[in-house]
Amino acid sequence: MPKQGLCAHRGGFESTPENTVPGFEEAIKYGAQMIEFDIQFTKDSALVIMHDGTVDRTTNGRGAVADMTLNEIRKLDAGIKKGSKFASTKVPTLDETLALMPKNVWLNCHLKGGSKLGAAVALVIQKTNRMHQAFLTCEEDAAQGARAACPAILICNADSRYRANVPQYVAATIKNKANFIQLLVLKPGEDRTEQIALLKKNNIRINYFEAQKPEMLEDLFKSGVDFILTNDLPHFVTEAKRLGIAPVQPIY
């Protein structure tokens, strides 16, 4: 598995519809080391890929995801708002998303729900033989549900109760024996040297959300960050190559 690199946030949604098959295919084409996507339940407990609590922003429909069945959501167009060439793109399910992913990229599964969702997603990851590469970015309650269902599941601590307080966030991540952390944007004058050293000592991989410009990559990688989220993967690949990070050649 990649040791360092770029993470395509929601598939990289500057040029493709977020959290869709076209977006994931572009991320794979450009050799992303990690691909991030959001998972939540429908009304009938299907697992779909969508960031917002409603379908309003990214599809031609309206309403809360939790109030719609999978069949209702699948009738929506999740691509048309990015242009006519993406018309008729469907909201993907978790199974569909996992099926198209290479075996040699990290899968950053951001959970939009609690312990029940954590358990359900962990079991799908186990069933589809993705345990070596998929991890759940989630709140503590979702992590507990996931580990109860599947003790070996990889976890990225992203608990919103303390995430903005970096020392507290790092301490909780270590205490909870998470495998990843996803640090938020560095504040002006903030020094995370000590916290990053603690994470490294405890073998916790460090994600960073997010880089707005390619020229940010060098300093972030030098600081100890392992994976950097970006919304615009194609514009970051050249700089990553310059820094010695080659695009992933997908293995299926």
Automatic annotation (TrEMBL):
Pfam family, one: GDPD
Any GO BP annotation: lipid metabolic process
PROSITE patterns: GP_PDE
Cleaved signal peptide residues: none
Domain GP-PDE: 4-240
Cross-referenced InterPro entries: GP_PDE_dom (IPR030395), PLC-like_Pdiesterase_TIM-brl (IPR017946)
Gene3D superfamilies linked: Phosphatidylinositol (PI) phosphodiesterase (3.20.20.190)
Molecular function per GO: phosphoric diester hydrolase activity
Protein name: Glycerophosphoryl diester phosphodiesterase
Organism (species): Mucilaginibacter galii
